[in-house]
Amino acid sequence: MRKHLTYAVKPEYRCTCGESYESAPEKCTNVIGTEHVISHVENRDEGKEYVIREMPCRQATRWAVKLFAALLNAGMKVPEGMALSGMAGASLIGFDSMSNLKAEDAQALLDELLGCVQIVRDRRHPEKSFEMVSDDDVEEVATYFKLAREAFMLHVGFSNTAVQ
Q1: In 3D, which of 33, 13, 29, 9 has the Cα closest to residue 21?
Q2: Using CA atoms, how far apart are residues 129 and 133, in angstroms rounded to an integer?
Q3: What's the longest Cα–Cα distance across the chain?
Q4: Mean pLDDT computed over 106-126
Q5: β-bridge mates for residue 120, sequence order
Q6: How far is CA 13 from CA 16, 29, 66, 147, 150, in A?
Q7: DSSP secondary-structure letter at 163?
């Protein structure tokens, strides 16, 4: 059975020093004799819920091959044999490796990852999720990348932490 997980966009709190928190802290962990101001950072996607489903094995393998091909075409050195290890190799390279790619290659890989993401339009019925087709489904660039990162992690996590 393929894995899936539910991802909810939660509020974020950020300090003037750059530290960020998922819930409002009493004080910043970086405070050393100076005053820090923590504020809630608004996100237009806050409160939205998404379901991320694992790609079928064949599609995930093809995605990993495309990632390695794009990395090699971009001039990145990939250890010998890693490109043939599929998602296991992708887990070692990491999500951030896509920042080394040409824009069109990175966008195609991100779009395919985001094809695993559906939006829950009615929180009373989380079992009903829908393909993201509206510009309102994801309104923040940060959410877009968080969803893509979560989809990547679902595929390379190799653990039982996801809901089955």
Answers
A1: 13
A2: 12
A3: 55
A4: 90
A5: 49
A6: 10, 13, 36, 19, 20
A7: B
CA dihedral 151, 156, 158, 161 (to 10 degrees): -30
Query: Do the Cβ atoms of 117 and 145 come closer than 8 Å?
Result: no
Q: In a 3-state reduction of DSSP, which class is residue 10?
A: coil
Identify the CA nearest to 118 among candidates 95, 138, 98, 139: 138
Q: Which residue has the higher pLDDT, 75 or 159?
A: 75
**Residue 159 clears pLDDT 50, i.e. is over it:** no
CA–CA gap between residue 40 and residue 22 (Å, rounded): 10
Tally Cβ neighbours within 10 Å of residue 93: 21
Predicted confidence (pLDDT) per residue in 73-112, tens digit: 999 888 887 877 888 888 888 899 999 899 999 999 999 9
- pTM comes to 0.78
Residue carrying the six token digits 């971009």 = 74
Confidence label for 37 from pLDDT (cuts 50, 70 and 90):
confident
Q: Which residues contact 50 (CB under 8 A, 6 or more apart)?
A: 6, 7, 8, 9, 117, 118, 119, 120, 129, 147
Q: How far is CA 81 from CA 25, 41, 86, 93, in A?
A: 45, 43, 10, 13
Phi, psi angle pair for 21, to nearest 5°: -135, 150
